[in-house]
Amino acid sequence: MNSAGSKSRLAPLALTVGEPSGIASEITLRAWLLRESHALPCFFLLDEARWVAESAKALGLDVPIREIERPEQAHNCFNDALPILSHGVVRDEASPGHPSPANAPAIIRSIERAVTLAQDGHAAAVVTNPINKKSLMDFGFAHPGHTEYLGELAGPGHRPVMMLVSPALRVIPVTVHVPLSQVPDLLTREAIETACRTAAQALKRDFGIAEPRIAVSGLNPHAGEQGNIGREEIEIINPAIAAMKAEGLSVFGPVPGDTLFHAAARETYDVALCMYHDQALIPLKTLDFDRGVNVTLGLPFIRTSPDHGTALGIAGKGMASPISLIESLKLAGQMAYRRSWVDAA
């Protein structure tokens, strides 16, 4: 166990079940097997022990399973077994590669229980395994993804902001899971300003950056060329940047998207605020696909997640890499440890 869990005896991390028909079980099992070599903080899985044991057997992974009744019991067994905490909803057996809406209640309940445990202080952070949005929506799930649902669970007054983190780059998309055709209509000064403020607060509190530098991208090619290729920079982005500077934040831009991510440019900022999903995620995944972590800012609890999907095409084949989950667990532990010191100061 690393300093995130050993020095101050933080509560363990709560890891959700994710999509049972995807690679969630495999990457969880493999992450536990690599706990010592990667100095992982203590975590427990919200799932059913019998199905986790079946998954380990099918994959040929020697992972002892230990059922626990309370999160704090994870500390007593984590070195020797993967702690499993039941979340109260029985799920069906999963068929690799074939998600079923029948398992949606267990998946949703796992997220809800993790959030409750984090809010009550019984979990130091929430780490979410990937979900299959279509099967959840077929069941009636009314949210585009984890980020929006976590915002609802957090309660009124919380506006979640997605930040993707890798060793080489941090990015925030202002608009997220929407069609590209809708981005210009959804892009507002308020959304950009909220993302800037939330990012600055999080980088100070959770990443130890005293004066965060925020680069803001343009929406249009060449950042609009003074209005010749679109006016969003003039009418929306520039006024938002000016407002943030007036509040004392270190914000600059709009920077053309095609010049924002080369090595020298990345040295000039701590996070890049991008206008739409792929503008942010393509450079991050190109630079370091395996180690990307999804962090939700603006919540009253810490949440991280692997920056990849359920990988249904390789589910059950023993091919899944646990690296992004490992990085998610490590980052959640580091954030929790740093926050415990900042909040106590």
Automatic annotation (TrEMBL):
PANTHER family: 4-HYDROXYTHREONINE-4-PHOSPHATE DEHYDROGENASE, D-THREONATE 4-PHOSPHATE DEHYDROGENASE. The gene is pdxA. GO terms for cellular component: cytoplasm. Substrate binds at H146, T147, K285, N294, R303. GO terms for biological process: pyridoxal phosphate biosynthetic process; pyridoxine biosynthetic process. Binds 1 divalent metal cation per subunit. Can use ions such as Zn(2+), Mg(2+) or Co(2+). Catalyzes the NAD(P)-dependent oxidation of 4-(phosphooxy)-L-threonine (HTP) into 2-amino-3-oxo-4-(phosphooxy)butyric acid which spontaneously decarboxylates to form 3-amino-2-oxopropyl phosphate (AHAP). It is found in: Cytoplasm. Pathway: Cofactor biosynthesis; pyridoxine 5'-phosphate biosynthesis; pyridoxine 5'-phosphate from D-erythrose 4-phosphate: step 4/5. Its cofactor is Zn(2+); Mg(2+); Co(2+). The keyword Zinc applies. The keyword Repressor does not apply. Keywords: Cobalt, Cytoplasm, Magnesium, Metal-binding, NAD, NADP, Oxidoreductase, Pyridoxine biosynthesis, Zinc. Signal peptide: none annotated. It catalyses: 4-(phosphooxy)-L-threonine + NAD(+) = 3-amino-2-oxopropyl phosphate + CO2 + NADH. It comes from Limibacillus halophilus. Belongs to the PdxA family. Its EC number is 1.1.1.262. The active site is located at the dimer interface. Homodimer. This is 4-hydroxythreonine-4-phosphate dehydrogenase. A divalent metal cation binds at H177, H222, H277. The lineage of its organism: Bacteria, Pseudomonadati, Pseudomonadota, Alphaproteobacteria, Rhodospirillales. GO terms for molecular function: 4-hydroxythreonine-4-phosphate dehydrogenase activity; cobalt ion binding; magnesium ion binding; NAD binding; zinc ion binding.
